[in-house]
Design a protein that fits this description.
By secondary structure, the chain is an alpha/beta fold. The protein has a single domain, classed as Alpha-Beta Barrel (TIM Barrel). Helix content is about 30%, strand content about 15%. Strands 3, 4, 5, 6, 7, 8, 9, 10 and 11 form a 9-stranded mixed sheet that branches. A two-stranded antiparallel sheet has the order 1-2.
């Protein structure tokens, strides 16, 4: 994909609520530029690498950084009193010792909880701003916008100077809002099932000109990846579950994908670095 150089755009005050009207956000002529990756096939640590660390915790982010991942994927949603926290599920039940929906709990309620971990762990649920401070200058952010306003998440990114180190994943309508409010921030939707046919990506991109397309690896083919590239989009696959292993990673690379999301970032980095992350150019089979 041809990436363009970034400029800046001062948004009007009304677009971001309490954000200063003079705060600069990335703008672009054409597609927004993706953050730089270390290798041809970017490694995205799913929830920080949930197979190797307690998901969506500061420890998981540190693990992804140490492993050499290009992105850390984090899920963000607000508490009842508007504090953005890392939490995949709508409730805290599965990952902590507490109970209840995040949106019905206050930050004080959630701050007392500890995240479950096979190794004992004991991490507390992080605030989004803590995660951003840890990521800044160390790793790119694959932001899964679970809930909350675009304005609130954008304010946090601006405050942490992370707008040029992020790609945002969400539903189509939410990403259309991101494009209206902050067109210089790249977005990544899942490719809908009805568009996984010849010509379907082109039709989808006319509705939402995304910089990256997502979806489980088993939903993609070499032909679909090639069509995405012709339409100017990169492809990051969710290499999770039965394909989160060397055989699956090799298949993804040979398919021509630009990024792989994994629960095992340390293993995937080791595999790509040992094999050469540009296997598809080497003509291996």
């Amino acid at each position: 994909m041809r990436l363009t150089r970034r400029s800046t755009l001062a948004l009007p005050l009304g677009a971001l609520g309490s954000v200063s009207p003079n705060v600069a956000v990335p703008a672009q002529l054409g597609p927004a530029a993706l953050p730089k990756a270390k290798r041809t096939v970017a490694v995205a640590a799913h929830r920080g690498g949930g197979g190797e660390a307690a998901e969506n915790t500061l420890s998981a982010i540190r693990h992804a950084i140490r492993a050499g991942a290009d992105y850390v994927e984090l899920d963000v949603r607000p508490t009842r009193d508007g504090v953005l926290v890392l939490m995949h599920d709508r409730t805290v039940d599965r990952t902590t010792g507490g109970k209840g929906a995040v949106e019905e709990l206050t930050w004080d309620d959630i701050a007392r909880l500890r995240v479950r971990s096979e190794g004992g762990g004991g991490d507390r649920v992080p605030r989004f701003e803590q995660a951003l401070q840890l990521c800044r200058g160390r790793i790119n952010l694959y932001l899964d916008h679970k809930a909350g306003s675009v304005a609130a998440l954008l304010r946090a990114l601006l405050a942490a100077s992370m707008t040029q180190s992020v790609v945002v994943y969400a539903g189509v309508e939410t990403l259309l809002e991101w494009k209206r409010v902050a067109p210089g921030i790249p977005v990544m939707p899942s490719l809908p099932r009805e568009n996984r046919v010849q010509g379907g990506i082109s039709r989808f991109m006319r509705r939402l000109p995304a910089e990256v397309l997502d979806g489980h690896q088993l939903e993609w083919t070499r032909d679909l990846v090639a069509e995405a590239h012709r339409c100017g989009a990169q492809v990051f696959v969710d290499g999770l579950g039965p394909v989160d292993n060397e055989a699956g990673w090799r298949s993804a690379v040979e398919m021509g994908v630009d990024g792989i999301q994994t629960d095992y970032p340390e293993r995937l980095v080791r595999y790509l670095d040992a094999s050469g992350s540009d296997l598809r150019r080497l003509g291996t089979s």
